[in-house]
Design goal:
The chain contains 8 helices and no strands. The protein is an all-alpha fold.
Length: 191
């Protein structure tokens, strides 16, 4: 079996599981609740996959530095949200992250690694803050955060895999365009 069909099969299996996951429903708590949460919203799902594609397109050290920066800054934003620190325009910034990250992929922007890290880290703060505020009071914030962080890393890895397997290469750019358009829909309240 070649890598492409195996990757596609694993991706579809992960999506099937995520499609049935509704945050706050049933007996989920802590880790499981945090892990499924990013799969429930198109804003988080698209932005996190776009970060992986962006990192893969840059290659080299960016392949791990850009996603790692996103995860670290998302965790910092999450702590701020948990402790109730205010952050203006969180939902607008999240929608803008989908637009900008999608556009970065669509235009195959070859940013310096530091600029890519700064861009990903900036938007990650807003994603983390939103999720820090959304942690259910009846669950452990630490186990929820660990699940959420693992899911985020998984989505980054999915984006890296998509970028690596996109043949022809323009498929990733088309996906980036669709992501940016979805972000516009989110910003305008259509999606």
């Amino acid at each position: 079996m070649t890598r492409r069909p195996l990757f596609i099969t694993l991706m579809l299996a992960a999506m099937a599981t995520a499609a049935e996951a509704h945050t706050g429903v049933g007996g989920m708590a802590g880790f499981a609740h945090g892990f499924v949460h990013p799969f429930n919203g198109p804003d988080h799902l698209l932005a996190m996959v776009a970060v992986g594609v962006f990192a893969a397109n840059l290659g080299g050290r960016a392949l791990w530095l850009v996603p790692a920066t996103f995860v670290a800054m998302m965790a910092a934003g999450g702590v701020a949200g948990i402790y109730g620190f205010g952050l203006p325009y969180v939902e607008v910034a999240i929608a803008l992250s989908v637009i900008v990250l999608g556009a970065v992929v669509a235009f195959n922007w070859k940013a310096p690694v530091v600029a890519a890290m700064a861009l990903a880290g900036f938007f990650a703060i807003f994603h983390g803050h939103a999720h820090g505020l959304e942690i259910p009071t009846a669950t452990s914030a630490v186990s929820y955060a660990v699940g959420f962080i693992l899911a985020t890393a998984t989505l980054h890895a999915l984006g890296i895999g998509i970028a690596r397997l996109a043949v022809p290469r323009c498929l990733a750019q088309i996906g980036g365009s669709a992501t940016a358009l979805a972000g516009l829909g989110l910003l305008m309240g259509v999606l």
